[in-house]
Batch of 4 targets.
Target 1
Amino acid sequence: MDIVKASAVRYKKIQDMIDLLKGKGSSKAIDAILKNSLLAPFKVGKSIFIDGDTIKIGKKEYYYNDIDNVTVNTEGSMALYDRYGKKLCGSFRLNLSCYNIQLFCIWARLHGIPAEVVSGKKERILQFLLLAVAFIAVVLWRILD
């Protein structure tokens, strides 16, 4: 039963993140509160740093209008793309579990960066594949031991 609750909470957080990026919900209240707090620089995850209108990803720095869009898949991974379609960062640096991900979503919305929701089918297949490989490895380890 706890796994079902955990899964429900996870998908609720993903939906909240998508709503923040898409501008749904009480945007006036969020915008009023966070316009002042976004003036202070903040870190997202381990390697993304946002300071006003600029975002630093690793060692490279971009202005907000250099970002073409943010994609979010239904499993919680995100990616940033520049105006030429090049991926600036992906799911290892930017995902649901990152520190300050909500602030990042609000920052993106306040700067008018479009958000696109994509299917998480590939990620889900990869998760099941890894689970199957782990199961087979345990079974083989038990048999050979």
Target 2
Amino acid sequence: MSLYLVVSAVVVVGFLWFRSARRARLNWVRSLDLVGQWDLDSSVDGSTGEARSLTLSGGPLTGPYVARDGDTIYRGTWRLTGVTLTLEPAGGRAAQYELRLFGVGRIGIDGPGRQREIYVKRDDNVIPFRARS
């Protein structure tokens, strides 16, 4: 009987821990609010180089992206796994970036070709309406 109680208590505690960890993860993903257009914050390093932006579409964890580096445009798919943002260009190799949240509308991306870059979410006051069918 005592073994049954111990096993039951471990199962209940494990379930509650798993559920709270999942809720915390979902809250973090919601606070990221990744879907939208992100522009490189040039005020951080004072650079006046070419404009860089990253437009993420789709759901909160995956979807298509468009990256603009000056006149060059890259398209592909993105996905978020843990704190790793993976950008996989169409017909190319996937690159993984460490993602950090610095505050509402500010993220940091660190990885190949985007070392320690800070992006600011572009405010958009346009509300898309669904087309009548």
Target 3
Amino acid sequence: MRNVRAAEDTRHARTGKDGAFYSKDGTLLATVETFTSNVNYTNAKYSVLGDAQEHETANTFAVTLTMSQVVVEDDQFIVELMNAMESQTMPVWDFQGSLLGRNESEERVVYRECIPSGQVDIQNIAVGDVIKRSWNFFVNRPPHLESQLSVAR
């Protein structure tokens, strides 16, 4: 085997049960079934005289956050969203994503100034399914890595 680290560190592999999603004040958002954060980089292309190869340089990046929420009862998020649509003043939220390591270390990322972006489910109902609400956010501040996982040997 060429990659011995892959086999010896499997005890530190994490699953969804080790993750959590929190509000700004640290309240566990217990009805969130999934969450995903992504960064998308857009580079500027350029070419120079005497060089047939096209080049890129770093330009901008955008961070998005998506969550799926099990609808158990009306919650503060949907109330704030509905009130925002009536007042035409969009809400702004801060979130924290957390992943707990086997050795009690934690990866925690803070997402600030998140606003609804794209499609947000108001009601999404199907016979025989658990009712869920999908949320999409644009993150207006760069994510901040509060802490990271470690592997103790």
Target 4
Amino acid sequence: MKASKAIKALLVCAVMAFAGATPASAQLSNILKKAQKTLESVNNTLDKVSGEGGSEVAIPSGGTMVNPMAAAAQVELVGAYGTSTSENYGRVYLVLKVKMIANENRIGFGGSMNGAKTMAIDQDGNQYTTGTMGQYYRDVTEGIEMKVTLDDQYGPFDDVKKTAKTMQVIKLACYINAQNRGMITFKNVPVQWDVQPQ
């Protein structure tokens, strides 16, 4: 008798514990869902600022591009152009088409952003950087596509081997405003040596 009463009491306690746990687990589930949404929101913001994220799109001149700031500025790579500085080396600069979407009249390219430098890596794994830590600003007009040539003193990649026919990756720092800044990534970009941009 005493054993069956003890078993009954144990079963009642187990049922009560299970019944009480269901609302707590439901609350925990809701808390976890809210935390997940908050984390996704933070990650999206960080992606925008750090230059991560964005969709990879084909470039008409060859290769692909990821622009995490596309909602603020549309950027198209016209091409990567090399000019000889010696028999075996040269400078490679980028020509872009930029259409500002945000209500801004300047855009900065080059230098470094969030600790990452503007850089390029050729098909042989050689790495090149530009000669400045800051951005070069260009005047733009909202809603109008404008050509931007990064061939100023510190804009190009210097001492590039003329054997570089393709840049496996180019990471270009871009600053529009505090909410839209980061790295635009180009992949498998052909280098056109001693050719004038069109």
